[in-house]
Each structure stands twice: as C-alpha cells, then as structure tokens.
Amino acid sequence: MTKIDLKNLTIKTAHEALVRGDFTAVELAEAYLAEIKLNNERLNAFLEVFADVREQAQKADARIRAGKDVDILTGIPMAIKDNILIKGRKCSSASKMLENYTATYDATVIKKLKDKGVVFLGRTNMDDFAMGGSTENSAYGPTKNPFDDTLVSGGSSGGSASAVGGGLALCALGSDTGGSIRQPSSFCGTVGLKPTYGAVSRFGAMAMASSLDQIGPIAKNTEDAEIIFKAIRGADGLDSTAFDYDSNESPQKFKIGVPYSFLNQGGIDQVVLDNFNETLEKLKKAGHEVVEVAMPNLHYSLACYYVLMPAEVSTNMARFDGVRYGLHLDGKDMTEDYFKTRGAGFGREVRRRIMLGTYVLSAGYYDAFYNKAIQVRELVKQDYIKAFSSVDVVVTPTAPTPAFPIGKNTNDPLQMYLEDIFTVPVNLAGVPALSTPTGKTESGLPLAIHAVGNYKREDILFAFSRAIENL
C-alpha cells in the first residue's frame, strides 16, 4: 500500500494527489482506517466506524477516473458527529435514549457532501444530546484528548475534534450551540468554525436549542475549514432559517477589537492570557491594529444562555417520550412508562437541563427569567453590531483554560459552564466565530484565539485566521 503522509495532508493536497494518481481514495481511506484501529480504543473518538468505507472510496475512485463531477472533496475521508443523520445508519446522539435509532433520511449537509463524493468514516462521540463541554456526558464513555489521554477533548463535539487532532480523520463535522465546535477545537489543536446562524441548514441535525444550534466544520487548517463551509452552506427548503449570501472582499490589514473589560473579570489561566497577548503583539508587528471595544453586556451572556438554552432543551427533549421512537421501558401504566423511559434514557446533564428549562418556562417564573433573558440576548446582539461598526473582528481566547483532567469538573456543573464564557455570546447573537490554534503550553497542550465576525462575514474570519497561521 502507498505510504501517505497523513500528518501533513490537507484537503487540497489530498485532492491533488488523488487527481494525479499518487494514491487512490481506497488507499487514503485504508490509511485512516489503520489509524483508527491503532488509536481509537485509546481515544474513544469514534462510536462506530462504517463497514462500507472501502466501498464509498471505490465509488469516489470511479468518479475521479471518469473525470466527471470531481469535486475537491471527492474521496476525502470525513468524520461525522453522532447527532447528524445519515440515512440507513445509526445516529444515537451518544445517548441511551437513541441507542438503536437508525436514521430514515439524510441531513441536508450530508446530502450535499454525498453529492460531492465525500467518504464518511464513521460517527463520532459527543456529550449526551450535545449537552456538555467535555464529552464526559456521553453514554459511551469520554473521548480523550489526542495530546494527553488523561485530559478531556472538550465538548460537545469532542469526538470530531479528537479524531481530526489525533489524525484519525482528515476533517469532520460538528455542531455548535454554545461553543461545541470551537472549544474542543481549542483543546485538540484544530480549526473550528461556528457559521452565521442560518448559513448552514440544520435539517437532519438533532435539535438541542433550535435558536442557537449550528452545524460547522472542524479541520486541520483554515483552508480546509473554508472548503467544507462552502460545500455545506446555503438556503434549504427544509429549513426556513437557512439562506444564501455571497462572500465579500476581506481587508489586507485588520482592525482587531478586544473587549478588555470582559477579559479582566478573572477566571482565565495565566498561560492562556499570556498566549493571547503574545498573539496580539505578533499581529501588531505584522501591521494589524488592535483597539479596545466596549461590550458591556457580554458579562451577562453566560447567565442569559443558561436560561434560554435549557428552556429550548426542555421543549426539544419532550418528543422523546418512549412512544414514537427511541428507548421504551414498560411500567405499570403509561405515566410510569414515560418516567422510566426518560429516567433511563437521558443522562444526568440532560435531566438537569430539562428540569432547569421547565422551571424557567413555568407560569410563575416565565417573565422573571425567560423574558428577561430574551431582552439580554438583544443587548448582546447590539454590543456586536456596535463593535463591528468600528472593527473587523472581535477577539478573545477560545477557552479560559487549556484542556483539563477527565473528572475534574464533572461534579461542579457551574465550573464546567464557565468553560463556555467566551463562546456563548456568539450563539446568542447569531454571528460567526472561528477558533484558530496559536501555540501550546510548556507541556504541549494546544491554545487558541477566538475571532468573531459580523453577520455573514465568514470570509473575514478565514482571512484573519490565515493571517494568524502566517505569523
């Protein structure tokens, strides 16, 4: 079998090699299958490796040989988060509730990738119904960090980030409700994009919090993330929130806004802060301008998010009643069926968020909590709108800490929620954001910068991320 340099392989170089005939899609797929066989038991990144990977790759090779309908993604091996439906395959959302559920249709993003000839390697581990920041809430065990398997991979898209960061997949799809693509990307040394809300169809992605969820790419570099984003973006008749828009020309030099008052509220590891400031200094030396931006309402984002998100979780999880699909346990009557099914099917964090969401939506507390959070969400949006009237991007660290030990925060949900402090404002506002690696700690753990762009300006984020990669 042809020896393939997987470590330095990108989508573009893989495509060029496939077209030249340096190696085949089957050989490329087999190289990744070998890596999965070697490392997945340790990392637990994949919940299932598909049995037909070689057959998918053979079809891609046939397209390449014929020279027809060949896309840059044809034959590219990709991992898919376990909450994105692929027709005829299991999709469990890493939950006991859907342990044996088989998808009956393709998600829109999957249909688009199938049309381009992508090879799907398998489904990746995640937090139970995407609820968590470490992939420790998976019903099938935590995913380990590829740089140190005593540490978390981040979450909820930890399996996808660990697979790409650990060399088990060339690229992956994740979903992001409050940082679930960007935070694990930070921990695993990958590039992760949360697109503008509506840029990518959510049809066929299991809903957690519908007004916050977004599918996006996890990749080895900026170019790969941009290729995947352009392949999956666009309007969809099956998702009324999805829309089309064109890319614009990006500036050569960036005006970078930093919300220093938000950063100075504490809780950031010194190593993260030092790396962030060093990156800003490098950007200044490269000719970019760094200015302070006032965003006073970002301080309230986390509290706002943890009212609105559980409220939507409570509503979306109501469909898992043991009657229509998924797990069913028998009790002495229908009410007990319901209690037993949901008690056994949902993990502890899912149950916690359902109870919290039901509470804030109850008649006595709706105005005090939910309506107030809706008002704060609008203030956060206005902070971004005002900031982007004077800067190109707003930057912070992606996460306040590097990857932390497995088990460290499992009994302290508030500490776990604080890991999302820099990422959740983006989902509340619906703007795009990109996490880009910016170096490592002395012990070799990845660190990253978090860049937020204006609505529909992913093009600026990609250009800014390339500027960081070229520092």
Tally of domains: 1
- Number of H- or I-type helical stretches: 16
Shape annotation: globular
- The CATH homology group name: Amidase signature (AS) domain
Tell me the span between the first and last alpha carbons.
37 Å
Topology order in helix (H) and strand (E) letters: HHEHEHEEEHEHEEHEHHEHHHHEHHEEH
- Biggest sheet layout: 11 strands, mixed
CATH class: Alpha Beta
Structural class: alpha/beta
Strand tally is 13
The name of the CATH architecture is: Alpha-Beta Complex
Name the features:
alpha/beta, 11-stranded mixed β-sheet, Amidase signature (AS) enzymes, 471 residues, two-stranded antiparallel ribbon
Description:
The relative contact order is 0.13. This protein has 16 helices and 13 strands. The longest helix has 22 residues, at 366-387. The strands form two sheets. The protein has an eleven-stranded mixed sheet with strand order 1-3-2-6-8-7-12-13-11-9-10, with helices on both faces. The protein has helices spanning 11-20, 25-43, 53-66, 108-115, 158-165, 182-188, 222-232, 260-263, 270-285, 301-316, 334-345, 348-361, 366-387, 413-418, 424-429, 458-469, and strands spanning 46-49, 77-81, 119-124, 144-145, 148-152, 171-176, 191-194, 214-219, 255-258, 289-292, 393-397, 433-440, 446-452. The chain has one domain (1-471): Amidase signature (AS) enzymes (Alpha-Beta Complex), CATH 3.90.1300. Helix 2 runs antiparallel to helix 3, helix 7 runs antiparallel to helix 16 (458-469) and helix 10 packs across helix 12. The protein is globular. The mean pLDDT is 96. The chain has 471 residues and is α/β, with parallel strands linked by helices. It is 39% helix and 14% strand.
